[in-house]
Amino acid sequence: MNEMRAPNVGLSEPTTLHPSVRDTAGSKKIALLRVLGPGHVWALGVGIVLVGEFMGWNFAVGKGGPVAALTACWLAGILYTCVAMIDSEITSTVAAAGGQYAQAKHIIGPLAAFNVGLYLVMAYTMLEVSNAIVTGDLIEAFATNAGLEGAVDKRAFMVLTVVGLAFLNYRGVLATLTLNLVITAAAFAAIVVLFVAAQPWAPGAVLKHGDLLGGLPYGSLGILAAMHFGLWFYLGIEGTTQAAEEVRSPARALPLGTMAGMMTLLIAATITWYVCTGLMPWEYLGQAVTPLYDAARLTGNRWLETALFLGTLFATIASANGCINDASRAWFAMGRDRYMPVWFGAVHPTYRTPYRAIVFFAPIAIVFAVSTPLDQTITLSILSGLLGYTLMALSIIVFRRKWPLGVIPRGYVHPLHPLPALILLTLCTTTYVAVFLGYGTQLMAMTAFYIFASVWFVLHRYKYVRRGDQFTMPWPKPRGY
């Protein structure tokens, strides 16, 4: 393999480029495979997010009560609908691995792209960790209910989840996301089965909303506080963009899969809230680890309990599976562009996956899973996602100004611009305040981490970046250039 060094740069990184990064004389280029369709995009987005219906969202009930949680659910739904519309327009135009990272480097600049890449990696890795934690807790709870208390070590299942799914991702994206398609559909079906079994057409027969639903125990401040975990219903739907370089028709598959996924999640979130608040006192629901599984147990139906055990297990596995896919694509794209060591920008010659990026994050996820509380990992994921959404709102405004409609082809044009961007900024700001109320220390720590990382990038890493090579879209010069 020929060695290539960065031209016109003060210092070049002493490393050999993988052929996936650049063609060399006499070498064969190895690229990611374009094998995915709209169904796989839907499975990636919903597969990552649907676990939010099985765990995590209910902490919003503890923050403000059931009515506040429902309000936060719908406000977060508006936020993520804006995210999905903005994402669909930009990604159908910038169809490259890395998703929002690729968008930021083309539209805003290197420092913003570096930070967005870190946001993505942190958000998906912490979401993967949360899934591993819940998988272990769920299996331990099921074993205890079956009379096998003490026979299961949940940490072993946390490790097994991370390692097994990392191996699956290592072997190929088509099998990975086809599995997600199947088990995500099964998990969604479990939610529908529970909804039907709860007999919503007969109020009071199973669901006791009249007895269990209260007002706002903490007043309007509770609605604000509930926004923190309200995002968990939908966090990760933007991950559909990470498959941009591996779908057969980005202009069609990405908007269709993303928007269909968002509609699926809105339905699932509302059903989940309705069933759980009708079966459990809000004081218990607000701290449950597996609320839908607990709801099924309270019905007294053993078959329903088993169905929701499997549904919760499938949801956590699908989410962790998608998170590994997305985090590795973002890290791979940063390595390919030299924002991180180019060693990470390698594609496996047989399986055509970013295998080094996949393997790199497995031990990191395991360490967090066995040592960090669930609410902390959820908060770290939400905060990183929020920072990314804030920059996304700014990106679409800059994008429309630099390349107005009609200047470059777009696979999808989101309506009512700039209203979705302004709504997104407003809801993000509100959620920052909500997070600060309960997790101010984590918010300050994350902010400090990203500031220090930015300084490191500017002072050390930027000299390795090839500015000209990272712009892959055949666009005209932006307006005002």
Number of domains: 1
What structural class do you assign from the helix and strand content? mainly alpha
| CATH architecture annotation name | Up-down Bundle
Topology, number of strands: 0
**Fraction of helical residues:** 55-70%
> Which range does the strand content fall in?
under 5%
N-to-C span: 38 Å
Give the C-level CATH assignment.
Mainly Alpha
CATH superfamily: Amino acid/polyamine transporter I
Mean pLDDT: 87
Give the helix tally: 17
Please trace the helix and strand order, writing H or E for each element.
HHHHHHHHHHHHHHHHH
Radius of gyration, rounded? 22 Å
CATH topology: Amino acid/polyamine transporter I
Specify the biggest β-sheet.
Answer: none
- Poorly predicted regions are 1-27
The geometry reads as globular
Membrane topology: Multi-pass membrane protein
Transmembrane segments: 41-61, 67-86, 107-127, 155-170, 177-198, 218-235, 256-275, 307-332, 353-372, 378-399, 419-437, 443-459
Protein name: Transporter
Subcellular location: Membrane
Please, could you describe this protein's structure?
By secondary structure, the chain is mainly alpha-helical. The protein has a single domain (38-464), classed as Amino acid/polyamine transporter I. 65% of the residues lie in helices and 0% in strands. The protein is built from 17 helices and no strands. It has helices spanning 38-49, 51-54, 59-64, 66-91, 100-107, 110-145, 154-171, 173-197, 209-212, 220-230, 250-277, 282-285, 291-298, 302-336, 355-371, 374-402, 419-461. Helix 1 packs parallel to helix 11 (250-277). The radius of gyration is 22 Å and the shape is globular.
